Amino acid sequence: MSAVTNRLNWIKNAADSIAATMLAAMFITFGLQIVSRYLFNAPLGWTVEVCLTLWLWLVFWASAFCVKESDHIRFDVLYLAAPHKVQRIFSIIAALGVIVGFLYSFLPTLDYILFYKIKKSAILRIRLDYVFSIYGVFVLALIVRYSWRLIAHLHPGLYKKYCEKDDQEHDYS
Fold this sequence. Notes:
- With 173 residues, the chain is mainly α.
- The protein has helices spanning 3-38, 45-66, 77-81, 84-115, 128-154, 156-167.
- Helix 2 (45-66) runs parallel beside helix 5 (128-154) and helix 4 runs antiparallel to helix 5.
- The longest helix has 36 residues, at 3-38.
């Protein structure tokens, strides 16, 4: 295994560990809310806010860094029916569409996230720009991910080395 592959695997494992930690924290917080509400008849309002924030972060973090391309939901009947060269063209067009769409939306999204610095969450008083900043991270990660996929599809040697295994991982038959 090359040094680049080792480093990418380490980063992937770290991202998975962060997602697992967020999920565990959400589970513990949810369990605490259940115990507090139903055993002690004393609901804790902050637990709902923590669970919602962790859920938001978990979804965007996992989508950006943990979920493999082949694990995303796809409508690929036409793609799978096409010959390999046409599939490659479809992949290039799709990657360009994602890159252009997210690049076009990035500055307005960043502006909206930064606007939320004037607001705070209801109970814990956390600035909402911190809460929603994960979406900016998600957008940047997708731009980088699809730029890499675009480059890989334009250079078949890179595609075979890094992407082909992910794309063929699921058996659709």
